[in-house]
Amino acid sequence: MGYIPQHSLDNLKKYSYKGVDKSLLSKHILNPFWTWFVTLWPLTIAPNTITLSGLCLVLLNFLTMLYYDPNYLTLKGGATGPPQWVYFTWGAGLFMYQTLDAIDGKQARRTGMAGPLGEMFDHGCDALNTTLEVILAAQALNLGRSWWTVASQMATLANFYLTTWEEYHTGQLYLAAFSGPVEGILLIVGIYVISGIYGPQFWDVGILTFTRLDRIPFLEQNIPNIGLNESFMVFGAFGVAFNIASSYANVWRATRSANKSTTRPLLGLLPYVFSAALQVIWLASPSYYNSVIIHSRIFVPFLCAWGLQFAHTVGRMILAHVTSSEFPMWDWMWMWSFVGAVDANLPLILGRPPIIQSSPHNVALFVYTTLALSFFAYARFCVLVINDITEYMGIACFTVRKKDKEGHWQMTKLAADGIAKTA
Asked: Pfam families in the record, alphabetically (predicted)?
């Protein structure tokens, strides 16, 4: 027995992907493009290879940001950062990520490789991309190291968690008329393009000034003229509230039709609330050394560690979905952040300085250690899950192969037939 229990592995054969996409943009414009684009890929290329290629493009964007701004120096209202042309590459990279993320399922059906491994791999890459895009978008919106970026991280991860939670309880993935994977990504691509044309300082313009509503005395006196970037964050808050309502509505209908409790699934939202609260409590500690995390060069490592812990949490949730296992309510990776949050708040709890994070150097060391442990824990989870699923189902992760009855690797029949037909 490996990482996944045997009885859970047996449930893998019962799994089949189900999805609902109500996006008009996806139906009439993007999907026809994706259907054509997937035909450009040879049948010898595995769908997971396509998925990983898309994530590599986002990682390249992230490395570009670190190269031009290694300390993430752009504070709110600042003027430093990468050259404006870089934002165009970020937009192109994210659009290609969306495209590759959309065609991997089509490639899986073309090659006969559709199954739970692809679901796990796809969602795992999406979870990592979520945090990376938060950091990149905050740079493009000229938010930089600020609580607005923290709020963006919380809202974006919450949307992803809600979608995964909903899929677990309903058995299918719902994409609304306006969803993160479709319209949300294109919206961020648009932000990158605008920042590339006008620079990130463009987003500091007040929304009333931009819309020229400040010429109306009543509006000028009664509505705050917040920046376009901050207005975008407010818009995101309403989006999260809408997604909470719509996701629960879908879960309520599914559980009611199955004669199950319609309120019990709400307990599944507590893990995210708890884990996100830990990060905020850590950042908002009264200790001087800890309160400067958000305004220092370790802010990005902190967000990355948070994102890796989140990816581990939703990864276990997706695994529970494809194996029909119990919903995971606890994740041991939170313990490290719990220690960090408690230690940072010792001045408030016991009236004494932090024990571990007693100096700026120790705070940085602790954050980087958290990042390293989060990375290795999530990497270990991915490797163990991939090994268990590929061994049990007799498939390969990055090649279009299956095992025959004698245990020998061979190309899937669909792929072999397709290659023979092409020849």
From this structure: CDP-OH_P_transf
